[in-house]
Design brief:
CATH superfamily: SGNH hydrolase
Number of domains: 1
Shape: globular
Structural class: alpha/beta
Distance between the termini: 18 Å
CATH topology: Rossmann fold
Radius of gyration: 16 Å
Number of helices: 7
CATH architecture: 3-Layer(aba) Sandwich
Helix content: 25-40%
CATH class: Alpha Beta
Amino acid sequence: MREKIRSVLCFGDSNTNGYNPENEERWPYSVRWTGVMQEELGPGYHVIEEGLGGRTTAFEEPFIPYRRGLSALPVILETHYPLDLVIVMLGTNDCKNCYAAIPEAIAEGVGRIVEEIIGFRYPEWCPVPEVLLVSPIHIGKETWKSGCVLFDSSSHEKSLLLARVFEEKASRLGVHFMDASLFASPGCDNIHMDAEGHRNLGHAIAERVRSILS
């Protein structure tokens, strides 16, 4: 009998998409945390990268369309099921000043994402996947370096509080949790990870995926 290949969907923003703050391009797949995780997990796993720059949890981006994660998620779930695990790493863009969202409101948004994954109308033959909620890396203090005026000092301060409220939300919803800021920091633009950050986070999440799906 052939070994079952486990499918892992990574639902996130530009740090999942692999935005490179050094040249505004994308890191090669082998450098991105999703690619690092795929390499470490090996052929018994299929890592699906679904990252989009500017993606929020439940807020409508006022300047760029199609960034509301909750709206995009159902199509993505239907595209890729059956899934063994969905990793959700969102919240950085919710810290933009245009949303004026407190950390607890951002946690409510990511909670709705998790609820959609758990409550989605999968076919009878398709099991409900496990969910790993990952609070994002911290936003740096010098947000002006990102070139985006929607990030400011309040964005930095909010990002420091997301791990606590996300962990509480994960506990209430009965899903897995980890804190990306324990393994990676923002690079030169104070928002996006450098190559080392992607590598460290990819290894850390790979270890957690093994423990969840073993």
